[in-house]
Amino acid sequence: MHLKRDSKLRLATIGGVFALSNPAYAEYGLNLVEPASELTANVFDLHMLTTKLAFYITVVVTVFVAFILVRYRRSSGAEADQEMHTNKFGVYSWLLVPLIVLGIDLSLVGPANDTLKQVEQHVDAELTVKVTGSQWKWTYDYLDNGVRVVSNLQEHEADEVGYLRSVDNHFVLPVDTNIRFLHTATDVLHAWWVPAIAIKKDSIPGYIHETSTRVTKEGTYYGQCAENCGKGHAYMPIVVDVISKEKFSEWVVARTADANAAAAEASADKVWSKEDLMARGEELYVKNCAACHQVNGAGLPPVFPALKGSAIALGAVAEHLDVVIKGKAGTAMAAWGAQLNDLEVAAIVTYERNAWGNDAGDLVQPADVKSAR
Ligand code: HEC
Ligand SMILES: [Cu+2]
Fold it and tell me: What is the pTM assigned to this prediction?
């Protein structure tokens, strides 16, 4: 590429400004995230050790090669030794160099083995959480106290923590507590990954994978799904709030009260008005269904069918409820009956039957959902 002199100058200036404007990309640290548990601290140390070794080897090799290139260059009269393979150095250097490399490798075995052992070791858990990946959200079931947190992407816009990093409901954990995670998935492979506090492990439908941690610092930690799980893979970030044990107990009590109130509201054989069902339905639809069927109900055919004008959304209520509650095996359409309560299903189905120009005109009440399950 030929550039005029002043375009070169301009490029250099722009480059210089970027190089000096550290704050602009301060959040892109050069290293791994700061660890907040013993296990991740060991992983971090192992990374530092290997990186340091690699750095020193690079320096030694580079200096050596540079020295050879300069010292034995042709213009200084150097000539290639045609007999090197016959003398002792020539013969044994091929053995010596791999031995040195092996020695360096072996020096890493101790620490690497210790860390790996720790990864596979499961302490007595004081708290067990089942972490379930689904297209495209995370569900956290606290097996000790029945609390459930469903965590959806909140912002598509960049906010102070970055683009696609925020969720509506944070995953809350107590500090200084032995925590066991049980990883699984409902549809395809996902991987729950929060590098500051735990190792990464695949979530596989039908299998349970166990990891554990003990977070030593309170704070908010970020992560994301680390296994390509389809179109919305980028839309399932993770936010973990690690708080004091006292605050955690209070949180559990408050969460349980909320869940009980929601269950009471949903299961009461109350009859809801169209306005109420449509308003709730729209909110729930956007959160749970729009990733595939789109906000405007047009879907993304042929994979994700349109609900606007769909024969099912405009046909018999029973069939519509059946698809939503039981899903369609072998497709991305999940069995939502397991994830949504009667009121929520009723609201979403009512919404689908009466939004975007759909004119089924009928209402679906929680009682209908209850008997359709
Ligand atoms: C991960 C993608 C995905 C999500 C999220 C999703 N669906 Fe589906 N949905 C599908 C697919 C794929 C089909 C087609 C299944 C088939 O082949 O019969 C489908 C089919 C349907 C149908 C039948 C439509 C027709 O005309 O065949 C309805 C109704 C429906 N979904 C409702 C919902 C509701 C309600 C939600 C939210 C609670 C939802 N879907 C969330 C993927 C999704
Ligand atoms: Cu995923």
Answer: 0.72
